[in-house]
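Possible race condition, two jobs.
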Amino acid sequence: MKQMKGYFVIIFVLSFLILPKNLFPQSSGYKVTGKILIGGKNRWDYLSIDTVMHRLFVTHMSKVEAIDLNTGKLVGEIDNLKGVHGIAIAYKYGKGFISNGQDNSVTVFNLRTLKIVDNIKIAAKGPDAIVYDPYTNRVFTFNGDSQNATAIDAKTDKVIGTIELDGSPEFAASDNSGKMYVNLEDKSMIAEFDPATLKTLAKWPVAPGKSPSALAIDLKNGILFSGCRNKIVTIFDTKTEKLITSMPIGAGVDAEVFDPTKKLLFCSCWDGTITEIKESSPTDFKVIDTITTEKGARTMAFDKSTGKIYTVTMLPDGNNNKEFGVLVLTK
């Protein structure tokens, strides 16, 4: 009888070892592999990557710093800004657009030279997130204090109009085909609007999420990921506006990026973690890793050409001090 029991134990162990690896969640292997110290102790917000010039733009309160991603060196600054929040890039016109929350304006700069070419005053309060929509060739600022969005013609730098949102907008995403989506943080809802007509098309709750901040989209499958401050990400089908599922994430989420090649969602959080979620199919999602970064690293950018992730916060400088800088994550 003992021999028989031993036989069954061996068979069980062997069968476990030869099970397909994809039966269990597998980490993609991302980890912090480098850092770029910038200096200063001011506030920061969103990051953006210029994939043509291979530069990382980092917002830094009164300026935007440009880092060469090939060398990791600071190569320029756009300064004299007023409470900078985000950067949108319109490659078609060779321009970048910076939202200034303190003076309700958008600074326009030349992508190649980093020289300021225009400053657009908007009739709104608190422009924060800013997104370029390639379908309409318009830039949209999302104005938290006036609960609306402002549309700007990326070619002429002229204000086109306003979308009333009846809620405080956070980050937004375009489907590149005539619809845009934005989190309404105070209402715990997502608003869908037409970037051409500037009309709101629909609104739906992010429940079980609360206070949505980060937003990313799977363009191919029409899936929207809304990162919420109650430590979950809610996942929606944009065609039906129905909840697919929700996943646990870290505390203080403020940015998300989606890798369309590997079908991976990354959620960066203030608590010093990035939650990694695998989309196995449009209805199958799994948390596969929690990547440790540094406390305060709540925003990030993803370089599709290299697969690298960049996030910013105050970093140890080796002398028992902390210095503002960029963390580089690779796998």
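Job #2 (started ~2 s after job #1):
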Amino acid sequence: MADDIIVSRDDWTLHRKGHLDQSRHKEKVEEVIKQQMGDLIVDESIILTDGKKSTKIPMRSLEEFRFRYDFNKQNHTGQGNKKMAPGDIIGREQPGKGKGSGAGEEPGQDIYEAEVTYEDLASILFEELKLPNLDDKKRPLIAHDRPEFNDVRKKGLMANVDKKRTLLESIKRQAFSKKKKLNKEAKLRISQEDLRFKTWETRPNFETNAVILAMMDTSGSMGQFEKYISRTFFFWMVRFLRLKYENVEMRFLAHHTEAKEVTEEEFFTRGESGGTRCSSVYKYALDIIEKDYPPAHYNIYPVHFTDGDNIGSDNSRALALMKNLVEVSQIVGYGEILRTHYSSTLMSTLKRIADPKLRLVTIRDRNEVYDALKTVFS
């Protein structure tokens, strides 16, 4: 009979050195990242350095729950004392016990700063994003080979061990054994015959041609806040698309009263001045689509960000052109960055388009970029 693998209680605690510690730590970091995602993705240390640096988040150190004896209270045992009466609340913090003025007596919680890289944020953020309404019938191409875990076997590498299946096999085996009643202190035994390993095979990953038309308002009404929010949204959009999709093209359009195509570097760095005529960029986008991306063969995704301060006489033309864009596109994203409550913006005009393919978002605070990404790419 094969040798058993003895798994004691200590093998599953947070203090175990090695893989389990690292896995648990990673889970806790990911949990904190998800809770703070709205603030983390707009952090200047990542956005302004092209994603090559990291930021830090505060989080509590990992520690097992345990009972701790209070050596300062030696005159009584139990939950209360002679001064307490029924209905009194226990456990409330007292002055001088680690909070407030003076040196406290109670131990505090260990807080440390976990370093979060661009890759950490991207891997979690991009799990929730995808290109909506992607039509795989539009000229599919083989982009790359993709490994898929599709089977579980009894032999394999320890790095690919399936813990859940292994534990289930151990439980089933012991349930049929003669030992019907185990002592509470007994150790969980996993034998070689219980081990199960995930296996994979490589399959061609078919992807469809898609084009993203990134459109940004660079007029004089776009202040520092509006420009930063726009660039932050497009920063994560570009990286999400390049990481998850092989066959996707990106074109970068900037506009004030006139629109033009710019390089990616210019798109994220340059500023302009002058008035705002949003219809110019919609017309430019439609011309590009007609010339280079026939809708019969391409999935088309125009995304426009502006402060909504459009020339009033241009709104009707912008509305007509936006309707045309929505008609030929899979999804059209339109975002407005507003720091005050304007009485009238281009948004109020575009709301007349009753088509779910037009996705409208308004950003008034930095942490709303996260929700905007999920609204447009979900």
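The chain is about 30% helix and 25% strand.
Logs attached separately.
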